[in-house]
Amino acid sequence: MQRGILGGLLGAAAGIAMVSAASAADLPVKAKPVEYVKICSAYGAGFYYIPGTDICLRVGGYVYLETGVKALNGVANIYGSNDGVINSAYNYMNWRSSTRIILDARQNTAYGTLRAYLATGVQNINHSGAVGLDAAYIQFAGFTWGYTNSFFSFAPVGYGIVASPMADWAWLSVAAYTAQLGNGLTASISIEDPKGRRAGLDGVATAAGPVTATSNAYGGSWAPEVVGNINVTQAWGRAQIMGALHQVKPNRAMLGPVDTEWGYAVGGGIEIKTPQTGNPSNSFLLQGVYAKGAVDYTGYNSSPTAGFNSFASQKNSGLGPVFAVNDGFLNAAGTEIELTKAWSVYAGYRHYWTPMLRTSFGAGFLNIDEGSDLASLGEIDVVQANVSTVWSPVAGLDLSLDIVYSDLETTSPAGVKSSNDLWTAWTRVRRNF
Asked: What number is the average pLDDT over the span 425-431?
């Protein structure tokens, strides 16, 4: 009987084993371990390897809202005058919101790092949307090809969120080479799209020669901007000297047989860290530019998205300091182009009260002089000063307020003066990621 019981138990165990085996066969095959994204630490925080490649990628961007009075696109906006006679379409208050996606891909090669950078997105200005491109370029073996900030620029916009008309800022298509000379010293040479550097060319000649009207008489593009700089960046800060050549080519259908002229710009800048003032991030900035026949390099355009016409007076009465900025003008005899002289200087100081709170102070002066010839449009002087405060309650979130004073004065060739001044308040809420 014991044998029967034992045989029954063994049979039952075998049956259970067979059932278990059959059930196991019905279960799905266990998946292989997931290959998680691998961190790439070679180029700083935020980079990871694109799976299956040796390319390191960082994905980032920002979103912001701006609003304020007497400014547009982060540029001070003189549309009226002290007498209050302004165009009925003038916006006393303006709005802008924007988002950008930033992709930064880098890869180590036998020739050094191969980099591709893209910053693009959309923005809405006063209920009008548009696609925007901040940068799109390739860097390899010291070369830079693509759309980026000019190699002439040193400290775009200065210290503040409202762009200064004394700080050069231009997004252009460029082809450049930068040589690393050691100890933080570099030298760059760049050829850049000239259309982004043209102010205007004034003059429509009659058969007798004198100018009778004004127009942009620039001809086609025949030569690029030639830009060079020498830059040093070390623990104490950075400094740069720069220069540019600009072709002033007339439209001969408008000006007749007038020779092409060459304008130029030279400048320098220095930014010094001042940890002795309480924080290692505190700094002082000074930069200046002199230009002849290449006015854009002074920074008068203020921003690659807003021209100098937003810093002029537009009034129903037709009065006030309306001033067309030109790289040159046809002289009264109609025989040659007289090149405009211009210069600008800007100084700023940035102070961190705490790691989350900082205030910047800036001031600058701009002079554009087309000469005393009655064919010219005269002279313009701009003075601007600003106080900018940024509070970052958490990392990546900036709450900003700029208060800006601007004064614009023009003098006609006959000596008639006209001036405008205004106060601008501009705010920004920006999330960086």
From this structure: 97
Geometric angle at alpha carbon 132, from 131 and 135, rounded to 5°:
145
> What is the number of domains present in the chain?
1
Does residue 153 belong to any structural domain of this protein? yes
Query: H or E element: which one contains 25?
Result: helix 2-26
In the predicted model, what is the mean pLDDT of the chain?
84
Per cent of the chain over pLDDT 70 is: 79
In a domain, 409, yes or no: yes
Measured distance CA(201)–CA(216) in Å, rounded: 5
Query: 54 lies in a domain?
Result: no
Q: Report the C-alpha gap between 265 and 245 in whole angstroms.
A: 7
Please identify which residue in the block is written with the tokens 């003075």.
Answer: 383
pLDDT, tens digit (0-9, with 9 covering 90-100), for 198-215: 988 876 543 333 333 445
Half-sphere exposure of 337 (CA within 13 A, CB side): 33
In a domain, 7, yes or no: no
Helical H segments across 144-214, by residue range: none
d(CA 287, CA 270): 6
